[in-house]
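Reviewers of the previous submission asked for a worked example of the structure-prediction workflow described in the proposal, so we include one complete record here. The input consisted solely of the amino acid sequence. No template or homolog information was supplied to the procedure at any stage.
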Amino acid sequence: MNKTKNITLKKESKSFAGYTRFYEHYSKFTKTKMRFSTFEPEEKTTKALI
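From that input alone, the workflow returned the following structure tokens.
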């Protein structure tokens, strides 16, 4: 079962050395649209800040 099938990419922007992507999905629990964003670097990193 694919639990992420209702996630939609709404916007994508080139920023710094990667991409910021904005997504939206419908929550059955809250019965509302929910949004989140990610930053995805272009190159694989070997060091993390956290």
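The mean pLDDT is 87. We consider this example representative of the routine output the project will generate in years two and three.
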